[in-house]
Amino acid sequence: MSNTNESIRSTEKKWELRSERTVEDPDIKNIAEKLGISPLTALLVYNRGQKTPEKAAAFISAASENYYDPFCMPDMEKAVERILRAIENKEKTVIYGDYDVDGVTSVSILYMYLCELGLSPEYYIPSRSTEGYGVNNEAIKQFAEKNITLMITVDTGVTALEEVKFAQELGIDVVITDHHECLAELPEATAVVNPRRDDSEYPFCELAGVGVVYKLLCAIEKRLVGNSDKVKKYIDLVAIGTVADVMPLIDENRLLVTQGLEMLNTAPRTGIASLLKASSQNDKKSKAGQKITSSLVSFTIAPRINAAGRIESAEKAVQLFLGNSVSDADTMAEELCEINRRRQAEENRIIDEAAQKIKDSFDFENDRVIVLAEENWHHGVIGIVASRITERFAIPSILISFDENNIGKGSGRSVKGVNLVDALTYCSDLLIKYGGHELAAGLTVDREHFEAFKARINQFVRENVSEKSPSIVIEADAYISPNDVSLTQANELLLLEPYGVANPSPVFFMDSLTVRDVVSLADKHSKLILEKDGVQLTALYFGHSRASLPIYKGDVIDIAFTMGINEFRGVTDVQIILKDLKRQKNADRFEINEESKKKYQSVMAGVPYPRSDDGILPSREDFAQVYLYLKRRPGQYRDDCLGMREIINASGGKINYCKLRIILDVLEETGLINITYSPECDENFHFGVNFVKNKIDIEKSSLYVKIRSLAEKQ
Q1: Do 332 and 316 form a contact (C-beta atoms < 8 A)?
Q2: Given pLDDT bands bounded at 50, 70 and 90, which one contains residue 713?
Q3: What are the phi and psi torsion angles at 558 (to 5°)?
Q4: Cβ neighbourhood burial of 393 (10 Å; 0-12, 13-18, 19+)
Q5: pLDDT range class, residue 636, cuts 50, 70, 90
Q6: Confidence of residue 640 (pLDDT cuts 50, 70, 90)
Q7: Is the distance from CB of 301 to CB of 240 less than 8 angstroms?
Q8: CA–CA–CA angle 432, 434, 438 (5° rounding)
Q9: Helix residue ranges per DSSP H, 312-470
């Protein structure tokens, strides 16, 4: 089974280029010349499918004339007609939405628009924990009791065959707007508006749920006044829902998000302004007044809206969007930030418990899927934790929370090459229900079938996935040189925003950089000073502490990174953010020898060794060299971080791993130093040099005496 190191097992990421094209390619040069951009920017546009100057120009400009006619969407005519009839007759209407950001923004824009047209609709969002996803009959019964005659679904409903039939039996017409995959049979609703329908003639099927609702609003406006200009005031929420739902930012989505971000930056609605203000006060990474980008939506706005549906009620987020009072919006924004902090605390708790389970019982040699279960893990959080576990270990993971009735609801995440839905289908006879996508899925399982399910899904991956350990892939656009890292180039990259799925933030590779220094940032992050061809670069590595990196001064590394702009105290400069790094093996640098590691473990276990083996017992000179090296480190009387390979190289390779570990153990035993090894990287350790009045005789250390006694005479 696993040992301590396996619980922190590092994952080697694969590096791949998006294409074989380079800045020297004639097509790339042609785009650069025609558009007046750098060849590197032209390559980025080309790699995103814009392979002519005309297409590249349209992509960069995100021209609004590329919007499609909403009436190309199936059943749009029927939906408009039924909704206008409800408005004319003042019918009781309810909007039924999902509890994620896409659903919340969908509910919000449809509610506000219908109110403008004189209708007074209700809205309903099911509880994630008690009702789960989708339309349910209990809610429909409540609607019927209120004499509601029209239900409009947003971001849900396309698979609700029985529920729609039940609603109609109770006298409720249903208009479905959705963007999820359709079943072979559609619900028998008044209208099913979904660009993914097999009979759809709509040119773009990748709209978010809020994008479909927006097109419905456009269609109603066109019917009423001949144009859809009035509904553009909702495009900010369309952008938030589209980005948060991780939809591809190409084609019509690119237009929607570009214009939505512009509105967010120039005229943010009251609720968004309050949420951004509250976020900047509660999150050190957020800055008041910073430009709102797709990245800020993903990492600042969306998590706080999502947290409401995960932990409490998504209706709190709807109220934030609907309100106009600044004081009310400030209060609600603070509440959402507090809910998000609770979500983070719950997430961290579950992560710690999951990590301990992996450390105690996961078999990295044989198991291919991490399957964990616990009592009452929060349903709204386990999906996020599964994502983090999969990212860390580069294998699929499934977390299951069992309730008091022994029913477990689970959420899983996978990696490229392992289709999670196929794997769950293989286990379908053991599951109550399941569903999802290739890389993310949910399931329900009875406790009595848990162990069998765990074994079956691992069997599926062993038998159907050729690679023993599927890797996380980092795709980059190009290898570049230090001279390509400039403020001018970083500014040009802004032309390609907004970034997201299908238009990823550009990633670059650079090889053979010499490490000049590695500095800790806030204990959780690192800053690397790198040099190549006489050019010095500063790179930030977020989420990787200094103690977690087996990288030291003098090492030569290759890096995968993004390039951005940093503004600090009025100074604007280019910024490198690392995504991954790889150390080059160098003949001039000494490595930690595995044989030497085994020798140390053997000796510490009390196994005798040949006296002639000079790679085990340290000499007095070895002790002196290491002790002086530690004392001469800056900050020698405070906690410091050091790597074993640094000392090995400083000794010219004369002190190997085995000798060094013995030296450190003896120095600690005699009280000359205190030492703590990093749980993230066993090459690194924190140490402090102690002040000792009396002279210490190293050779009288009980540990040293024991190790010397193990030497066999020959």
Answers
A1: yes
A2: low
A3: -105, 145
A4: buried
A5: very low
A6: low
A7: yes
A8: 160
A9: 315-322, 326-361, 382-393, 420-426, 450-464
pTM of the model: 0.80
Task: Give the strand pairing for 478-479 and 191-193.
Answer: unpaired
Average pLDDT over residues 460-481: 82
Neighbours of 35 (CB within 10 A): 17
Q: Name the helix (H) or strand (E) containing 677.
A: strand 673-677
Nearest residue to 288 (alpha-carbon basis) of 298, 277, 299: 277
Burial degree of 132 (CB within 10 A; 0-12, 13-18, 19+): middle
Nearest to 659 by CA among 608, 595, 581, 606: 595
Burial class (CB in 10 A: 0-12, 13-18, 19+), 240: buried
Least Cα distance to 303 among 354, 253, 337, 265 occurs for: 337
Q: Whose structure tokens read 């609702």?
A: 213
Report in angstroms the alpha-carbon separations of 575 from 132, 426, 489, 507. 43, 47, 11, 13
| Helix, strand or coil, per DSSP, at residue 461 | helix
Yes or no: say if 387 and 369 are a contact pair by the CB < 8 Å rule: no
Extract the runs of DSSP E, i.e. beta strands, from 200-295.
none
Q: In what helix (H) or strand (E) does residue 252 lie, and over which residues does it extend?
A: helix 251-266
- Contact by Cβ (8 Å): 377, 343: no
For residue 414, how many C-alpha atoms fall within 13 Å in the half-sphere facing its CB? 21
Cis peptide before 608 (omega within 30 of 0): no
End-to-end, the C-alpha distance of the chain in Å comes to: 38
Please list the residues that pair with 711 across neighbouring strands: 609
Angle in degrees, CA 550, 556, 561, rounded to 5: 80
β-pairing verdict for 640-643 and 609-610 = unpaired
Q: How far apart are CA 540 and CA 338, in angstroms?
A: 29
The residue type at 208: A
Helix (H) or strand (E) holding 711: strand 711-712
Structure tokens, 145: 């009791």
Cβ-proximal residues to 604 (8 Å cutoff; 6+ apart), any chain:
none
3-state helix, strand, coil in the chain (%, to 5): 45, 20, 35
